């Protein structure tokens, strides 16, 4: 009988099954049985599972008819024989150390089950699970949900290993026939357990399936997405009512915030019948919720819950459509009274009187710029404010309070501060009604205030907070560090022999831990295959003293003897400990490659002075130089983590940065060793906020040395280079594994390659900084000034600055071009610019660019979108040419000509023709109505579009029906040359034909305002088997979308989302796959075949946009719903063209009658009519 049984339910996961099973086979703990349950798979999953069962005696396969995940898990449990049992979904991964560590912990504690941290895994790497931020914040052994109440949030089943006797005794079983089945099992387990081990250690990688293989939990328009969530909650409610009623209120508080928060985010987009089913299920649930639980919910959530309880579906949908954007109101009346209180009382008395009288849902905001100790005082600089309360002037900013609270005793200490201007703060404000220009602070806290009355240090955690006083009381929140606290090297500070200050960040709020250094590592060196650690201990050390290395505190996995030296005059014992690299690998290896943003295999040190003594946590002294060694290519590092703990980290045999520097001209130069361990290495710069990347080849020398140069002002795109946009770019290593598959992981670095305190800056714009021990980030500063960024500042520019410029500044002979809000050098504005370049006509040509992302030709003047200069250009340019909307506040001046070229009319409705606008910008139509009177004329490509444009935009001005200037290249360009250049740029063999897939965006699927999702439903993995020898597939996502393309880089699929000229893509393509995009009508001018992949046709037509004509019966190509149908159509294109030739001809007649290659000439004639 194996010690651990691993149950793996399998259903149609052919794409992911091998990695999942490999992650089990490669565990460092091998006393396990893997019970695979094939739940009636119809793809190759069963065959793959059978291969593992045949080749590895630890794997066994059970087959059954399809019955769903719960039934498959229950079947696996019935067949499991181990002392312990766990469940692993067949598309997920287990870190190689997870089972070994878990078994060691459970055998030590005897607990009923163990629960570990889960990380989500997608195409970009690892990210945290918000629900676990509280429940798994720290490792706690032998606890319960009563002792650790936040475990009520621990709803997943697969992050647990159960003692089989407890599983049977507690009657645990997954509910059959329901999705979201984990909750009832996890709640029952926590409710009935007498001891539970909680690990703050990643033990499970939960895959987020994307594109064509989305999992059930992401099918958000299905009724089960809503109804099953509620049904599984009711199972838990019934259990708790009967067995643990004291847990009901915490459960309700958690469940409503979590599940209803998810459902409310998706309900607005669900079909009406699904909404009704949600209301029917949610009403009885909410009837059981105590009123005080509802009362304590955040304002927006409370409003929505009450609407559901009242049965007001229409009111709920209106509330959700509004986004819940109810401004926080913090009255300023009575500020004089408040200032009087500040003068009358000392800060400490103000704290005692006012703090705790917090009102409303106000939240603290801010950013920490620096933290340090100087002349006996803690000094902090940053900005901080309460959301909704102005800090625009010095007086309102002075109404703030800063303090620190000792977590254990509750003691509060006031902090004196000076208010400072902080334009960075207002640049981050998203509310139009207030600013925070004076929310900066320089706070100084004498360390003497952190002592007890007897003069001893008050050790422990201190939480820092900020508050603002109004006539209604104090509005308080934590002192927030912001996302950039790593930029200044947040690190432990050794203040005195008996005091170390350890800054930490918990839920975004600053904490300082005051501790007495008991054991410190002062030096690490590498000598002959040994990492030698030197340190000091306050406690005397016996000859049996040991240094222990633990993934979980108190549960050692590697032990090193300590050699003790003499006692110093200060009462410290100096010691030495040797880590033999071979022994480390023997006990902890092998080491696996970790996905991007994952935690490397890491253990932390504690010291046992003697076998029967309590262990001391081992810290690194401030300024300690890290040590590293290599064994069979594996990098073994002893370093300090961000909290100052001594960490032993194992990194697989991969390239490692040993040198990082900026060249004088601003090029980041990286070089290192280990290049021989990988094939085809590339540096991937990956934007952390926009799902965007830039890729550069890494040059590897014969000896394994490697180098790469990154110019952030000219990062590569297909056929162009552009600057890296503002934000944070993670430096990632990409290479091919032994099977030829692409692998991404964080680029490792030697500890001394990048300073942890200063990073590696270049001027004011660029900074390379370390994130923990895991990764390097290149931070790129915004191009706009602080007083030009943010909603508040943009409001000032548009309502004050721009109107003043328009009144006082003269018009200038400038043509201002804007394509897709400055994001592109494209469309009809580009066609116009190319035709005018080089003419001696006395005109200046200026392009709008957003974050320098449009690859404008050298020598062409640019203006940054959203800047003061952009406002001036709008106010003073005699000619304004745009392919999409201009700002709603723009007003055409007398003598100014505004040409709206629009980016096309096709199948889908636009403007006021859309019956139900579902854009992220809910005020879209109101702004359109304000904008259109300012157009001098509007270009229509054909007679069909003219009528639509006038009606859809309610435009009463001039429309010129001249064809589309952007299509001139398709009509009269040299296709052979355009195709040859494109294939060269992309590295595609010249004999390959090109398939272009270019879908539109979905109005209702967005991450945030202006950033739409790219839902790649076309399964490109099914193309190569039949098409790879003849074709290459180019994928062009819509400019409004920001998500990654999956599956490219295999020599067949090419990501051309950032190609600068879609006209070249259309000219070169042999066949187009699209959906409802205007691009298909542009492509019809070529006469080449078009295929429509419309997986959501009914929804898009009937609920989202609607069409101008019957695509199914009048479209110029087949209208298909599945990938397999698309592949079939591609395999017989001559037949496809024959079958749709009549329709195609009709479409060309309707939409192409004005396309003769000279639309741009006609555009120029009309635009400059005033100059003739």
Biggest pleated-sheet summary: 10 strands, antiparallel
Structural category is alpha/beta
Determine the number of helices (DSSP H or I, runs of at least 4 residues): 34
Over the alpha carbons, how many angstroms does the gyration radius reach? 32 Å
The residue-averaged pLDDT reads 89
The assigned CATH architecture of the largest domain is: 3-Layer(aba) Sandwich
Describe the global form. globular
Remind me, CATH topology of the largest domain?
Answer: Rossmann fold
CATH H-level superfamily title of the largest domain: CDP-glycerol glycerophosphotransferase, N-terminal domain
The count of β-strands is 58
Integer tally of domains: 6
**Share of residues in helices:** 25-40%
CATH class of the largest domain: Alpha Beta
Low-confidence stretches: 324-361
Beta-sheet strand percentage? 25-35%
Give the N-to-C terminal Cα separation: 94 Å
